[in-house]
Amino acid sequence: MTRRRDFGALRRLPSGRWQARFRLPTGERVTAPRTFPTKADAARWLSAAEVDRARGLWIDPRAGAVRLEEYAWAWLDSRVRLAPRTREIYESQLANHILPLVDNGLPPLGEVRLGDITSELVRAWYAALERSRSVSTAAKAYTRLRQILGQAVADDRLAKNPCRIDGGGTERHPEQRFANLQELYALAGAVPKRYRALVLTAGLAGLRQGELFALRRRDVDLLRATITVRRKRLRLASGEVIEDDPKSAAGRRVVALPRQLVAELDRHLSEYVLLGSDSYMFTSSTDSPLERSNFRMRVWYPATEAAGLEGLRFHDLRHTAGTLAARTGATTKELMARLGHASPRAAMVYQHAAEDRDRLIADRLDLMAEESGLAAVVPLSGRTRKASGDTHQR
Length: 394
Known about the structure:
The structure is a single chain. This protein is α+β, with helices and mostly antiparallel strands. The chain is built from 14 helices and 9 strands. The longest helix has 20 residues, at 135-154.
């Protein structure tokens, strides 16, 4: 039985459930993507569709009928400017954390239609991912899902993004570890001599490992005491080795070197680097470009154990360089430029790590006051106190 209305129509099906539908100006009929247990429920859907159409917010329910798995892979294929390593990371997030089953009480998200992904489902998926994987993994996967569904909104497949977890994409990293100067030089002394300059360059200049592995002789200018970062070198999970631009445009930079590092690099160039401007700065004992995994197992792990710094990552030397730079009084912008950060957020970490400079700042303020001839206030502990029986005069 069909019920006539000013907008659309309601129909009771033989099953007893209710169906809502209406016609577009083109004459095409649109049916609600689901049936409703009561006439009132169906009427509410129809009324909402009428209001959304009047406001220009209506989304054809059929547009959201595509499964997330199909839409997500198509979205990734459309990202033609992604760096190869970034594409690998996105593929892994989709295949391992976003699309498959993460909890027996939930459907695999990849099998759910876009229009059926609700905020409640996203929250349950996120919580299950935190439990079964880790907080950091859940945050990364959530950020990617939000990005994909944001594109679905832009494509008029969804009216709004169901990813609305406050702080859901915020990663909570453990306290960053770094080596002090004594530990840095202990590490440099623990590695074979051909890697000494590599360790010190990481810990004093703050280059990323891929940037260090890509350095050539022509990138090091001892006269000007600088290193020019032009590229990074890494091996993909597929086994392919790529050399391309640094992580971001800010990664292309010129880094000033302290004198002690210039001396180390001068010695390294004469002893370990082949002639020719395009020769790699840091190589294996066979003069081959360094491989991350081989270096970690054969050089780094034994050195950290010998120096009593087990658990320290090579990337932590970059934290060391950032922290040491912050302790010199470098501003956020200066740290960004030196370390190749595109945003202030990462650079601020090193300023927080250098909070012990706050006492030095206070001491220097005292010195400024003294140099200006301003008398310091005598602290209460330095004053002569009256005996407890003395009468206090008002």
